[in-house]
């Protein structure tokens, strides 16, 4: 029995929207993926093309330049990229940044930045992780000190593992405005990178996977920003702002994980039907049948759960613990499925020219970013 790839949250309009997304992905992203993998970034042009088609900030209201849809429209984009093993264009991080601005920014900040993010003029990044602070955001050491006389802030510090860091035109910088207050002294400052004195992009980091996605070091040396660069206009709100948007981010990871599993499954199914060993297709061996049955079952079970999370997120009822479960379960399942699919490809599965090999390497970080899966277990356990 083939896997049912229908989504419980889809409808006729979303199906038409998906057709547009597929056309964009297959004409503007897929043909250039190998070049982007060698270069380490997808370039700015593809972002602007996506913006012109209304595919960026799809769930941001039209009043702020977005497409006026909801999370389902975003999910379609993540799925169609992930099914094809395309991880270079991190629209997920871009959208998360837009949501920080939309959910927590002042009216002036929304009107200044969101239309430019929706058009692809500004690529968004969020600078949280530091060389000495990962999941423990209270350990952030980057400082933002007030300049006397209302002169804004001076930012000093460094960040690492920043997705979209190389291409970013807008960076949300998580920093301490009052180190004595711990988490309560954390704020988020908005930095426009073009012509920004003291801002510097370090290395584009060499990862084991996600080769087309620019992940960089960022350095802030006396970067001066105006007072109105403080997200929301009030100091000490950074930790609250970060925590309130985590269910959104973790649902994105779950959606992407399931779609990647589906893409790997379909590619593996085609391969084992064509590949012959000992005079017959590999698909006819009992081991292959059993492995495919296990993969299909995991995808079907996961699809029911992830679709429910999408529906709850759209309805505004998805809680942090359930979103953490989605991220935990889906990424662990993704790791298992990618490993089994690669095994069924045999030696070819280890060759980077095959999509399944790239998907295997790309999947590993899913258990780390967005909060490690160990943190997910901690979050879930507190809600029991």
CATH superfamily of the largest domain: Butyryl-CoA Dehydrogenase, subunit A, domain 3
Task: Report the span from N to C terminus.
Answer: 37 Å
One letter per element, helices H and strands E, the order comes to HHHHHHEEEEEEEHHEEHHHH
Strands across the major sheet, in which order? 2-3-7-6
List the uncertain runs: none
By DSSP, the count of extended strands is 9
Characterise the protein shown here:
This protein starts with 11 loop residues before the first helix and ends with a helix. The chain has 3 domains: 12-118, Orthogonal Bundle (Butyryl-Coa Dehydrogenase, subunit A, domain 1); 124-236, Butyryl-CoA Dehydrogenase, subunit A, domain 2 (Beta Barrel); 245-382, Butyryl-CoA Dehydrogenase, subunit A, domain 3, CATH 1.20.140.10. The chain contains 12 helices and 9 strands. By secondary structure, it is α+β, with helices and mostly antiparallel strands.
Q: Layout of SSEs?
A:
Blueprint lengths: L11 H18 L3 H7 L5 H8 L18 H13 L7 H14 L2 H12 L5 E4 L15 E4 L6 E11 L6 E7 L9 E7 L6 E6 L10 E11 L12 H7 L1 H29 L1 E2 L2 E2 L4 H30 L4 H26 L9 H9 L9 H10 L2
Parallel strand pairs: 1-4
Antiparallel strand pairs: 2-3, 3-7, 4-5, 6-7, 8-9
Helix pairs in contact: 1-4, 4-8, 5-6, 8-9, 8-10, 8-11, 9-10, 10-11, 10-12
Q: How would you briefly describe this protein structure?
A:
With 384 residues, this protein is of the alpha+beta class. It is 48% helix and 14% strand.
């Amino acid at each position: 029995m083939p896997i049912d790839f229908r989504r419980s949250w889809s409808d006729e309009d979303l199906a038409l929207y998906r057709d547009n997304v597929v056309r964009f992905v297959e004409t503007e992203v897929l043909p250039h993926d190998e070049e982007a993998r060698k270069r380490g970034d997808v370039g700015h042009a593809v972002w602007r093309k996506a913006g012109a088609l209304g595919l960026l900030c799809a769930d941001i209201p039209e009043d702020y330049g977005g497409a006026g849809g909801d999370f389902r429209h975003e999910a379609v984009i993540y799925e169609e990229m992930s099914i094809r093993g395309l991880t270079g264009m991190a629209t997920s991080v871009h959208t998360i940044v837009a949501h920080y601005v939309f959910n927590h920014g002042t009216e002036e900040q929304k009107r200044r930045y969101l239309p430019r993010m929706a058009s692809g003029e500004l690529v968004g990044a969020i600078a949280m992780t530091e060389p000495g602070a990962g999941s423990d955001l209270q350990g952030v050491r980057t400082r933002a000190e007030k300049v006397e006389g209302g002169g804004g802030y001076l930012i000093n510090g460094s960040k690492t593992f920043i997705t979209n860091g190389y291409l970013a035109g807008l960076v949300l910088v998580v920093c301490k405005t009052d180190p004595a207050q711990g988490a309560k002294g954390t704020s988020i400052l908005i930095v426009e990178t073009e012509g920004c004195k003291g801002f510097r992009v370090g290395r584009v980091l060499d990862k084991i996977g996600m080769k087309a996605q620019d992940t960089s070091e960022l350095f802030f040396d006396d970067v001066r920003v105006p007072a109105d660069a403080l997200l929301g206009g009030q100091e000490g709100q950074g930790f609250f702002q970060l925590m309130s948007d985590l269910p959104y981010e973790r649902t994105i990871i779950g959606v992407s994980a399931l779609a990647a599993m589906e893409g790997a499954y379909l590619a593996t199914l085609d391969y084992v039907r064509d590949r012959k060993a000992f005079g017959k297709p590999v698909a006819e061996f009992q081991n292959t049948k059993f492995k495919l049955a296990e993969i299909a079952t995991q995808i079907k079970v996961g699809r029911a759960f992830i679709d429910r999370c999408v529906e709850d997120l759209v309805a505004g009822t998805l809680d942090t613990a359930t979103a953490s479960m989605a991220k935990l379960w889906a990424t662990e399942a993704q790791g298992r499925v990618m490993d089994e699919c690669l095994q069924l490809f045999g030696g070819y599965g280890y060759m980077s020219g095959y999509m399944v090999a790239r998907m295997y390497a790309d999947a590993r970080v899913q258990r780390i970013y967005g909060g490690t899966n160990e943190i997910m277990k901690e979050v879930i356990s507190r809600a029991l």
